[in-house]
Amino acid sequence: MDSQNNITSSKIGRAAKLVGTGAKIGTNYLKYYAKKSITGNDDREMLHQDNATDIYDSLSNLKGSALKVAQMLSMDKNLLPRAYTDKFAMSQYSAPPMSGPLVIKTYKSATGRYPTEDFDQFDAKSLAAASIGQVHLAKKGDKEYAIKIQYPGISDSIKSDLRLVKPVANAMFGLSEKEMKKYFEEVEEKLIEETQYDLELQRGMQIAEACAHLEHVYFPQYYPEFSNNKVLVMDYIRGKHLKEYLETNPTQEQKNSVAQALWNFYEFQLHEEKAIHADPHPGNFLFDDNGNVGVIDFGCVKVVPEDFYVSYFPLLIEEVQANKELIESLLRSIEIIFPGDSSAVESELTSAFLKMTTLLSRPFRSETFHFTDSFLDEIYAMGEEIYKIPEVRRPTQPRGSKHALYINRTYFGIYSIMSDLNAEIKTGHGAWRERLMEYHGVLETT
Fold first, then answer.
1. Rounded to 5, what percent of the chain is helix, strand, coil?
2. What is the DSSP letter of 120?
3. Which of 422, 405, 350, 415 is nearest to 378 (CA)?
4. What angle, 0 to 180 degrees and rounded to 10, lies between the N-to-C axes of helices 373-387 and 343-360?
5. pLDDT of 176-213, one tens digit each?
6. Residue 392, class by beta-carbon neighbours within 10 Å (0-12 exposed, 13-18 middle, 19+ buried)?
7. How far apart are CA 300 and CA 190, in angstroms?
8. Is the CA virtual torsion 42, 43, 45, 48 positive or negative?
9. Longest Cα pair distance anywhere in the chain, in angstroms?
10. CA nearest 430: which of 314, 280, 331?
């Protein structure tokens, strides 16, 4: 893969790059229609492939929030044609890296030292390059380190990048200005946090300590003495990314083992710590042959407010769903319905939300659950059905708490990984269900 000697950081330069990409897409459409008129062939798949390539090439060279959007889109396999999701998935592992000289320059600019002043050996060729930074292998004595180096200028470009992405979001998802403001504020906050490597170090150490008792989950140790806001140094831990792991043809027992470990990790984080690793794309996990999962990259952590937690997660519980008065109260709390809604809108939204939560909560309704592609297909089909509702497709006001954005994204990502593993695991009736039922007094009334 070609490396980059520089990364466009000016607002004008980044805007021009995206405008140029738009022009390429326009040319692709002209070629498509010209070919169709001459040959009569409707080769729309080739059009999607050409557009996906041009968009990915542009975003991957810009890095930052622009590439992060592609990464997030690649996790939603039903949102875009397959040509796009397959291409955008590359951002999870292998965006074009910085060249060796640019890596050295960036490291020195961030630390005031050359890498060889801190380490005995430093490989200027990246191990992995993604949206915010890239990772390099270094040695000091017999110890191996993974060093994450942030791309220059990325933290300063987030707000302007998101302003450029807003029209695309509006065209693709039909979001109103109010909706975009509400949700883009949450996205912007999280993206800015991802550029704060000192915050990632702190959160990585805290979560690793809190989850140390969990079986078959392991984390890198972090090194504050070598790290700062732009450079993050941790242990180099071994394992395979999901695609590589599956190519080794592990047994179903082995796949179930890693899936169980991952599931337990997320359940504990969410329901005990109220803070969750909210970037569950496959590039952030390392699987080994002994049923263990290494968790890396704590740049995106969603801290779950207590008032949102006690209003949102009871909706997954059967006994709560049967309590009409409580459901109405909870849906108001998480901004699905509002006092000014007509009875028809309220009834339609409540029915649609309960249908979706009943489906999404299926893994929690039995002691074990088998994650399959057909289960994901049901979720996507339900999403399409609900999107046909006028108040969902074109809402009169933004619906849903902003806090649900990263929670939903996280669980869709986990469900997708579980499906790729074809995992059958213990999902069971966790203690959190009883705690929330007791909190809302449901145990006494059912």
1. 60, 10, 30
2. S
3. 415
4. 170
5. 666 667 777 787 888 889 899 999 999 999 999 999 99
6. middle
7. 6
8. negative
9. 72
10. 314
Check: CB of residue 362 under 8 Å from CB of residue 375.
Answer: yes
Say what the pTM is.
Answer: 0.79
Dist CA 284 CA 27 (whole Å): 36
Sort residue 64 into left (φ over 0), alpha (ψ -120 to 50) or beta.
Answer: left
- Contacts of range 206-211, beta carbons closer than 8 Å, 24 or more positions apart: 207/269, 207/273, 207/275, 207/277, 207/298, 207/301, 210/268, 210/269, 210/272, 210/273, 211/265, 211/268, 211/269
Angle at CA 367, nearest 5°, toward 358 and 385? 20
Q: What is the CA radius of gyration of the chain?
A: 23
What's the pLDDT band for 172 if we cut at 50, 70, 90?
Answer: very low
**CA-wise closest residue to 431 among 207, 221, 272, 206:** 272
Length of the chain: 446
Which pair of structure tokens corresponds to residue 105?
Answer: 């320059």
Non-local (6+) Cβ contacts of 323 within 8 A are 442, 445, 446
Dist CA 372 CA 285 (whole Å): 20
Average pLDDT over residues 327-341: 94
pLDDT digits (tens, 9 = 90+) for 410-445: 888 899 999 999 999 999 778 899 999 999 998 644
